User: Fold these one by one.
Assistant:
Number 1:
Amino acid sequence: MATDTTTAPAPARSPRPVRWWRRPWIAPLAIITAIFLATALPRYVGLDPAQSLVPTDRGPAFYPALVTHIFTGSIMLSAAVLQLWPWLRAHHPRVHRWSGRVYVASAIPTAVAALVVAQFPSSGVAQQVANTLMGTLLLTFTLLGYRAVRQRRFADHREWMVRSTALAFSIVTNRFWSTFLIAVYVPGALTDPNIGFDSPEIEGAAIASAWMSFIVNLLFAEWWLHRKPKNRPGAQRAR
């Protein structure tokens, strides 16, 4: 009787789980997002233009677009945090997929409303161009990411959605850049009530912040996507 000496193929190794300490930024990101939403959103819940952080006397379309941008943007940011959480993606893929759908459904009106708001800048054409470009890129990257996943091009989907998420969080980083740049452009402006926020120096800081808040995020996203993994087993899978 012949003996079968064919070696059975080794079972496929399951992907190494991504431990939480390999992504230590997810908790701080969630906390920063929660603080941002808790401080910004309440001013608009009552739909009172007098409570707005920015002047609303910029035409009848401005305040409705601003409120839409803030409400849908809040949903977008919350869904984005879930999308960026590797543990949730690995252990609850169904929740990951649904949070992705929520992200896309909220990012599209957020970007469209941003395009409307951008046409009423407080600091001139340079700020208008920056905000219009940001809104256009957010809408474009989100739609490209959605199309890629529908076509089951998952690697392309991941890249476009990372870029989209980087732009989504530009509203959060704008708070940092605006504060930092005002302190650089006009030292003492944040504590001196006699310095008006319509001064040329403050407007210059607002323009610079509008550009840096999304360009720096995009540069970081591109670095993240194209960085070389460390030479260790499973490093490629952990990306």
Note: Confidence is low (pLDDT under 50) at residues 1-15, 232-239.
Number 2:
Amino acid sequence: MADTWLIVGLGNPGPRYEMTRHNVGHLVIDELAARRSESFRAHKANARVVETWLRPGGDKLVLAKPQTFMNVSGGPAAGLAKFYGIAPERVVVVHDELDIPFDTIKVKIGGGHGGHNGVRDVAKALSTPEFVRVRVGIGRPPGRQDAADWVLDPFSTAERKVLPILVGDAADAVEQTVGEGLLAAQQRFHAPKV
């Protein structure tokens, strides 16, 4: 389907992980569904999905939250892409990014996984790294804290105050990428903040 996009938010299932940094991809998918007043349903690809539209008469969106743990996100992503007949270049993966400061969004297509095991697994399952990534900055841990612990920690009190804006910006980045193209989203979100 040439007019269908698969938007996959990476995260971990269950209430223990809901408000952790690693689950920001799920939060963005929740925001995109809420904007359209849509509810998720279970899909046989081991994901919770919403089938909706970018806007009336616009491209179809399949919003997905894999129900596997982060490191094995590829199976659900590839299963959904196959089920809906969506090519990798029309797959958008929304994920947390340590190498970008908190409250920053970056958008790109292809490239390496930067040590992110969820992105690595999606690239492996799709047999290509050539999919769009909406990278949501969570920043590096302070001091000597291990990055693996940092991503599984809840957002700090200060971060939670800004989180709705960050999630909204990431949802905007998804919509702009699908509706206007990657370059338009990059020009908006990669510009220095004034």
Note: The chain has one domain: 4-189.
